[in-house]
TrEMBL record:
<dbReference type="InterPro" id="IPR036388">
    <property type="entry name" value="WH-like_DNA-bd_sf"/>
</dbReference>
<keyword id="KW-0804">Transcription</keyword>
<dbReference type="InterPro" id="IPR051534">
    <property type="entry name" value="CBASS_pafABC_assoc_protein"/>
</dbReference>
<keyword id="KW-0805">Transcription regulation</keyword>
<feature type="domain" description="HTH deoR-type">
    <location>
        <begin position="2"/>
        <end position="61"/>
    </location>
</feature>
<dbReference type="InterPro" id="IPR036390">
    <property type="entry name" value="WH_DNA-bd_sf"/>
</dbReference>
<dbReference type="InterPro" id="IPR013196">
    <property type="entry name" value="HTH_11"/>
</dbReference>
<protein>
    <submittedName>
        <fullName>Transcriptional regulator</fullName>
    </submittedName>
</protein>
<dbReference type="Pfam" id="PF13280">
    <property type="entry name" value="WYL"/>
</dbReference>
<dbReference type="InterPro" id="IPR028349">
    <property type="entry name" value="PafC-like"/>
</dbReference>
<dbReference type="GO" id="GO:0003700">
    <property type="term" value="F:DNA-binding transcription factor activity"/>
</dbReference>
<dbReference type="InterPro" id="IPR026881">
    <property type="entry name" value="WYL_dom"/>
</dbReference>
<dbReference type="Pfam" id="PF08279">
    <property type="entry name" value="HTH_11"/>
</dbReference>
<dbReference type="InterPro" id="IPR001034">
    <property type="entry name" value="DeoR_HTH"/>
</dbReference>
């Protein structure tokens, strides 16, 4: 996850003059502290990152920066290409394909990038989402209205006419930021809940987006968990979420912390580790998580 995020940050900074830490943090669903660590990592990789202070400040890449293939080894390039190959299936972005092809030209012929393999066969559901993303991205670029049939979390189905503005990938899900003509306000729609999409071909004039420095509204509470985790799932844990220091408790376990929503999304994430992860605090989350697990037991105990 980190290498993919670093590549994406560089690509964004090459396309934008500056971007704030808060904007990047929301874009990749990580903390601002994580973004600051990413900037340090990029600087150590000799990518000239600079910071601008003030209300309109942020991070950028020096205008005269040119990519020097001597900064990367063949192994580095192969790793980046592997990540881009996987990202390409998700984004279906022509610029990503172009970037991938440019990087391939940097590899010596003996290291044929065609030898790289990423086993990421798309499912029917992902193919549907990919089609939605491609259509919405075209509508965003052309500034034309679209009509969607949307199913909310309660299963209620409604039709919306919207002005599409931006696609975002957060918490392993795709979202669309759009202006709803029925609500006369910006709304965020989860692509997986869009069951039908039609491009209306009616142009619209874009208005300023909501202030990016304000935290996005949420309907859940974030909590900091203290957990005991088995060493054999260490890689899965640190690849999936930003953790605090891993403190060795004994030959088989680490103790660490991470922040997660106190809702079904958080419970599902913790449950993925099965008996390899024990939540030690806070007590309120443990109670809610236990109640959620009991509901599953009762549902399947018939």
């Amino acid at each position: 996850m980190k290498i993919e995020r670093l590549i994406a940050i560089v690509m964004l900074l090459l396309e934008n003059e500056t971007m704030s830490a808060a904007t990047l943090a929301r874009r990749f669903n990580v903390s601002k502290r994580t973004i600051l660590r990413d900037m340090d990592t990029l600087n150590l990789a000799r990518i000239p990152i600079y910071a601008v202070r003030g209300a309109n400040g942020g991070f950028g890449i020096m205008a005269n920066y040119k990519f020097d293939k001597r900064l990367l080894t063949v192994t580095d390039l192969q790793t980046i290409l592997t990540a881009l190959t996987k990202l390409n299936d998700w984004t279906l972005d022509d610029q990503t394909r172009l970037t991938r092809d440019k990087l391939r030209t940097l590899l010596p012929q003996v290291h044929d990038p065609a030898n790289l393999s990423v086993n990421d066969t798309p499912t029917t559901g992902r193919q549907h989402l990919a089609a939605l993303r491609k259509t919405l991205l075209a509508a965003i670029q052309r500034s034309v209205l679209v009509q969607i049939t949307y199913v909310d979390r309660l299963g209620k189905q409604t039709q919306r006419r919207i002005e599409p503005y931006q696609l975002a990938y957060r918490n392993a899900s795709w979202y669309l930021l759009a202006y709803s003509l029925e609500r006369n306000a910006f709304r965020t729609f989860k692509l997986a809940r869009i069951v039908k999409l039609a491009v209306l071909e009616a142009p619209f004039s874009k208005c300023p987006l909501p202030p990016t420095e304000q935290p996005a509204p949420t309907d859940f509470k974030l909590v900091k968990l203290t957990v005991l985790v088995k060493k054999d799932v260490r890689d899965k844990l640190i690849e999936g979420i930003d953790t605090g220091p891993l403190v060795e408790m004994d030959q088989a376990h680490y103790q660490t912390t991470f922040v997660i929503p106190d809702n079904e999304y958080g419970y599902r994430y913790v449950a993925e580790f099965g008996t390899s992860l024990q939540v030690r605090a806070p007590a309120a989350f443990i109670t809610h998580y236990r109640e959620w697990l009991l509901q599953i037991v009762r549902l399947n105990g018939q």
